[in-house]
Amino acid sequence: MLKKLRNIAVILVFAALSALFMGANAKEEPQPQAYVLMEAETHTVLNELNADKRLNAGYLTKLMSVLLIAEDIQNGEYSLADELTASESVTNTKGAVIWLESGDKMSVEELLKSVIIGNANDAMTVLAEKSSGSTESFVMDMNAKAFDLGLRDTRFVSPYGYYSAEEYTTARDMAVICCELAKYDFLTPMFSTWRDFVKGGKTELVSENALIRTYDRHIGFKACHSDETGYCAAEGGRNESGSTFVSVVLGAENADISLGTAKKLVRSGFSGYKVAFTMFPDEMLTPVKVKNGTSAAVEIYLNEQGKTVVPKGSGELRARVVIPEYLTAPVKIGQPIGTAAFYNDDTLVYESELLTKSAVPKLSYKYILYKLLDKMMEK
User: Fold this and answer.
1) Are strands 288-291 and 326-328 parallel, antiparallel or unpaired?
2) Pairing verdict, β 306-311 and 273-278
3) Structure letter (DSSP) for residue 296
4) Summary mean pLDDT of the chain
5) What is the DSSP string of 76-141?
6) pLDDT tens across 256-266, in order?
7) How far apart are CA 118 and CA 208, in angstroms?
8) What residues pair up with 340 in beta bridges, in sequence order?
9) Tell me: the pLDDT tens digits for 106-130?
10) Residue 316 DSSP class
11) Stronger pLDDT, 5 or 320, i.e. the higher one
């Protein structure tokens, strides 16, 4: 009996030591170099790790390239049905290709599909030359667009995403690009296609983004990897009410981490947050009194009425208006005279200026005399 008890005790001690040893040596799942979760309409960042760290995003660069082409199509520069001819520039294109040769003709739609689904660099060349005349000019347009979007930590050196130490972006900046892409509904079918064919069915396209097949709220965007950049992913999801969340993951060790993190972030957006309106009807804003003016009061309005993102379970936003008791003439049209602030409990979530709807000149003797004469004439 004692021998049996000793054996049980040995087993228990061994199990305890094994558990301690395994716990001490257990490794946490490696984190990507950077990630971000952003609500698409307001660009509100809801979760991030090193969101502003400058990194190379590899072939995610093509998302900016696609954005420029989408804008051209939206603006009527050319259509998806238009047929383009490949120039000699497609010869010996590096990386992923659909084997275009000089003189080959393809529609804008097939070329765009080839870029979005198959990452085809030769197709990107044809589109870039159509858009800007040359790939060099196209890169200038990419950087100009980045500047227009306020992306101060992004620099592109090619339309393709070939690795370059001179090219960089951030998870935050790339998320803004994705938010812009989410506005173009005609891109969604391409971003949502995992496998397709072009060139009369002769060339197969397969997307690296496995979330196309595994995430039902998916609307785009792209996954890629290289030895220099690691695994990167940009993912967007939209729910029934139209809310859209975007995640970007840069520099993960493998596809499971990059895609898994991207999906987890977007899902946390839907489960944890909602979009709230910051509306304040003009009729609820009382006109402000004006002293020494040709009018006794002036109407005011909220400069911007928009949306903000708050945690689910939050109540109605509380508004607080701050305006002076009176203004002294002269008053200019569009003159800022106060603020309307919106609070979620005690947290300020949105603020906008209150402006005057009209001008009120200063009262003068000439104006008073004119009014007296006008009244006398009425009698």
Assistant:
1) parallel
2) antiparallel
3) S
4) 88
5) TSS-TT-EEE--GGGTT--SS-----TT-EEEHHHHHHHHHTT--HHHHHHHHHHHHSSHHHHHHH
6) 999 999 999 99
7) 8
8) 321, 352
9) 999 999 999 999 999 999 999 999 9
10) P
11) 320
Report which secondary-structure segment, H or E, holds 252: strand 244-252
Rounded CA gap, 49 and 176, in Å? Answer: 16
In three-state secondary structure terms, 243 is: coil
Give the whole-angstrom CA distance, residue 312 versus residue 316.
11
Cα separation, 58 vs 227, whole angstroms: 10
Sign of the Cα pseudo-torsion (354, 359, 361, 367, in order): negative
Placement of tokens 């010996």 in the chain: 92
In the chain, helix, strand, coil percent, each to 5?
Answer: 35, 30, 35
In the structure encoding, which two tokens stand for residue 350, read together? 């949105």
Helices (H), the chain: 2-25, 62-74, 108-116, 121-132, 135-148, 171-181, 188-191, 211-214, 255-272, 365-378
Beta pairing partners, 231? 225, 252
What's the rounded Cα separation, in Å, for the pair 96 and 98?
7
Neighbours of 22 (CB within 10 A): 9
**DSSP category for residue 284:** G
**pLDDT recorded at residue 24:** 46
Taking 50 as the threshold, does the pLDDT of residue 10 lie above it? Answer: no
pTM above 0.70, yes or no: yes
Judge contact between 358 and 296, C-beta under 8 A.
Answer: no
CA distance 234 to 259: 8
Rounded CA-CA distance 224/275 in Å is 31
User: Which residue shows structure tokens 């858009």?
Assistant: 131
DSSP state of 15: H
Q: How do residues 194-230 score in pLDDT, each as one tens digit?
A: 999 999 899 999 999 999 999 999 999 999 999 999 9
In total, the chain counts a number of residues equal to 379
Sign of the C-alpha dihedral computed for residues 128, 130, 131 and 132 taken in this order: positive
What is the SS3 assignment for 68? Answer: helix
Closest of 174, 168, 223, 166 to residue 55, by C-alpha: 168
For 164-200, write each residue's pLDDT tens digit: 999 999 999 999 999 999 999 999 999 999 999 999 8
pLDDT for the residue numbered 210: 94
CA pair distance 7, 312, nearest whole angstrom: 55
169 vs 151: CA distance, rounded Å = 8
